[in-house]
């Protein structure tokens, strides 16, 4: 009886021990899963923060690009007005000074058209640059540099003169033939309108370039 009693207690203790083990194992598994759940939660927040950071970066980069373009647009606008004002200021006497270069082109109506393409191609290369920002900037500086010595040279006359020098070096002696001055003056501006009216160089009213506002003013003043 004693043996059976002890054997029964041994079996009870054995089962109780296993029950405790199972209980602890169950809690261990629960803790393990809870730990993974917390990890996943933090990982999810880390991913959210990472994306939010990139979203903020993209937002700022977009604004930086906008500001950059806006700055160039404002610059081009002012540069364009600076060039216009500069030409308008010299409308009375620059028109006469232009006659030398213009007469040269008018005299060579067939090849002056090609000579204009040299200067125009240079400006056309910058056409996409914030609505001629580069063109206006260079025209303004070319004006400043050449008016210091001779206030009668407009920026376009300077470029046209150099184009003529490059392409008609042997024909430079025709520069005194001024009877086509007005037509050539308009023809140059017509070529500047991206060649929209380049083939109508002798018909100045076809010119569509907005810059003709200054050209018509020059003609009126003349």
What is the element layout, followed by pairings?
Elements: H1 2-89, H2 91-107, H3 109-125, H4 133-147, H5 155-167, H6 181-192, H7 212-221
Helix pairs in contact: 1-4, 2-3, 2-5, 2-6, 2-7, 3-5, 3-6, 4-5
What does this entry look like structurally?
The chain has 222 residues and is mainly alpha-helical. The protein has a domain at 74-221. 77% of the residues lie in helices and 0% in strands. The protein is built from seven helices and no strands. α2 packs parallel to α5 (155-167) and α2 (91-107) crosses α7 (212-221). The N and C termini lie far apart (140 Å). Mean pLDDT is 56; it is low at 122-132, 138-143, 145-156, 166-191 and 193-211. InterPro entries: Plasmodium_HRP. This is Histidine-rich protein II. It holds the Pfam family Plasmodium_HRP.
Q: How many β-strand stretches?
A: 0
Could you state the order of secondary-structure elements as H and E? Answer: HHHHHHH
Percent range for β-strand residues: under 5%
Q: What's the helix count?
A: 7
Q: Helix fraction?
A: over 70%
Low-pLDDT runs of 5+ residues are 122-132, 138-143, 145-156, 166-191, 193-211
Structural class, by secondary structure, is: mainly alpha
Biggest sheet features: none
The rough form would be described as rod-shaped
Cα separation of the termini: 140 Å
């Amino acid at each position: 009886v004693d043996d059976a009693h002890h054997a029964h207690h041994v079996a009870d203790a054995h089962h109780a021990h296993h029950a405790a083990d199972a209980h602890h194992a169950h809690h261990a598994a629960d803790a393990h899963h809870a730990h993974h759940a917390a990890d996943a939660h933090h990982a999810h927040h880390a991913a959210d923060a990472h994306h939010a950071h990139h979203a903020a970066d993209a937002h700022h980069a977009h604004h930086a690009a906008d500001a950059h373009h806006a700055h160039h647009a404002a610059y081009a606008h002012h540069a364009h007005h600076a060039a216009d004002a500069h030409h308008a200021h010299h409308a009375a006497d620059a028109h006469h000074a232009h006659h030398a270069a213009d007469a040269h082109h008018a005299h060579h109506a067939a090849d002056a058209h090609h000579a204009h393409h040299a200067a125009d191609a240079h400006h056309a290369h910058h056409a996409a640059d914030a609505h001629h920002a580069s063109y206006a900037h260079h025209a303004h500086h070319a004006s400043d540099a050449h008016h210091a010595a001779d206030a009668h040279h407009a920026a376009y006359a300077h470029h046209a003169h150099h184009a003529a020098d490059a392409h008609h070096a042997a024909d430079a002696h025709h520069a005194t033939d001024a009877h086509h001055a007005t037509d050539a003056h308009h023809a140059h501006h017509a070529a500047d309108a991206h060649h929209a009216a380049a083939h109508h160089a002798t018909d100045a009213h076809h010119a569509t370039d907005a810059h003709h506002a200054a050209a018509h003013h020059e003609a009126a003043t003349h």
